[in-house]
Inverse folding.
């Protein structure tokens, strides 16, 4: 095995994995403040692309907005 020089670790093995006050990505209500997410659970093209998103939405408002996979 080679001698590898590594720096000082940023944390300890006994440190908690969560810091109080930091919201997780799946917290309820997070999508309402993000661009491109609608209150009814649907999304707009702005959720998928930031390049001229208004022209990327369907022409007919009744059509579904299919986001890329």
């Amino acid at each position: 095995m080679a001698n590898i020089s590594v720096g000082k670790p940023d944390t300890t093995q006994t440190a908690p994995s969560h810091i109080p006050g930091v919201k997780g990505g799946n917290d309820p209500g997070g999508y309402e403040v993000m661009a491109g997410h609608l209150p009814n659970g649907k999304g707009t093209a702005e959720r998928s692309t930031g390049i001229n998103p208004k022209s990327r939405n369907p022409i007919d408002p009744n059509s579904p907005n299919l986001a890329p996979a």
Notes: The chain has a mean pLDDT of 77.
